[in-house]
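Retro notes, structure queue

What went well: the backlog is down to a handful. What didn't: a couple of records were mislabeled last round, so from now on we paste the full input next to the output in the thread. Example, using Major facilitator superfamily (MFS) profile domain-containing protein from Burkholderia anthina:
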Amino acid sequence: MGNRTIRSAFFLCGFAAFLNLYSTQGILHELAAAFDVSPEQAGQGVSATTLAVAIIAPFVGALAARFDRRTVISCAAVACALPVLWSAHAASFSSFLAARFAAGVLMPFIFAISIACIGEVFSHDAATEVSAFFVAGTTLGGFAGRFVTNSLTSAFGWRHALDVIAFLCLATGLAIHACLPAAGAARPDDEGASASRWTLLTRGPLLASFLVGACVLASQVATFTFVGLRLARAPFGFDTVEIGAIYAVFLVAVIVTPLAGRVAAQRGPRDLALAATGLAIVGALLTLSSSVIAILAGLALSSTAVFVEQASANAFISRVARGARSTAIGIYLSFYYFGGSLGSVLPVPAWNRWGWVGCVAFVVGAQALAGALVFFFWRGMPPASAGRPRSPEVRLTR
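Corresponding output:
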């Protein structure tokens, strides 16, 4: 099977991982009306999913170790359709939150196993590029989930919109099984690494990377949870379809992230992450404008930067955590999604008091912290391509 097909398969894995994760983020007003809660409370639907991912992610490697990774990934993607259908027909807000939590339990089996598989079957330089394709898939999945849900909600209601998301989960899972070659069971961590996971947790560069992930997703979730609420108010007055359309800014990252992966392979993830952090802050500040064009430009810049930061962190961890990659990735994802669950909760006081300015202050602070961690702790890591041939070394079989 050609490398292009394999890259496309991992792109689909990324798409599946994010398709349902934020699908309810743009319909908070509709959910609030349906369940008689505030829009801010409706945002807990996102937090419930990311919290479940954070809890389950560290254990995914051990739970899936005995099974073929293609089977695990594709089955998890297909199974995601069930809690989506549950959430679509939930009779109460508590039932809706339970369904969203159940979806989050399944998602790490797509995300974590895909990243671990990339790190194991590709050489370092190729892994950086394939990881970027995977992240580009998460970008398109995140956009599709939001855009499809918002567009169909306007025409048919949010429940039928989520029915369509469930169908897409099913179709994507089947496509992954068809495109991704069998990869065998996951390679276990080295004995020494498994016996010293506390040491792994407390190593400066890796611990910093885990915190970077938390900061990055917290800023992303905060931005796109509250910008919809802002644009729905005067003087903008966006309707549901228009709010869904703003997520088209994610499409920029679909193009940029794979290119950034090549840069990371040449320059190393540290330089790329620092540049992305700066761009994320600039983008957040641009959204303070009262011009819709400036706001959209800021959202495009900040969202693209976040996905580049994510790809950089994935590449850095894969290089540093040799012999304990599955453990490190699980811990990283736990921090990453725990940060995401906080991203729709922590800014609420600032939002209630200062509005969008308070939300931007939270985003800038989170990105500044991420940049400081990268600057001080990601030192001394050479580019993946330094001193080695650029060979993919793909070890997948049919």
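Agreed that this is the format going forward. Reviewer comment attached to the example: The chain has one domain: 3-377.
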